[in-house]
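HUMAN: Forgive my ignorance: could you write out one protein's sequence and backbone structure tokens?

ASSISTANT:
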Amino acid sequence: MTANKSQRRRQIVFDEALNKIFLEVLEEMGRDENSRFFEIVPSSKHYPNYGKIIEKPIAMKEMRNKTKRMDYKSKETFLGDVELMVNNAKQFNPPINGEVQLIVKHAGGLLEIALSAIEKRNDDIATLEVANDPKLL
């Protein structure tokens, strides 16, 4: 096997393992009863202004699809999508009379679940990252 084939195979194994971890994190998030509000991007039929207000819509379903396509190459890119989901909720649901809306609190709770789940798997993620790029040692 040439170096390039070996390197490409290692990259595929890394991507599969890393995205499996992120899928598990999404499953943990999905066990929260409030995750149902973030399963799919709000429909333009029910929320006609959503697409005008939110530049980059994202929902848990799309994040699961991204794990299946092995799109996530780092925990930063995965957490970036979770944070985008929270920021979209904040942008679309601004405070009312200075009070943070409940949906935004639910989104923040999902971010906390994701951060905690990632923290528990940090050693595995770090091991995968080093195995993928030995220069990180």
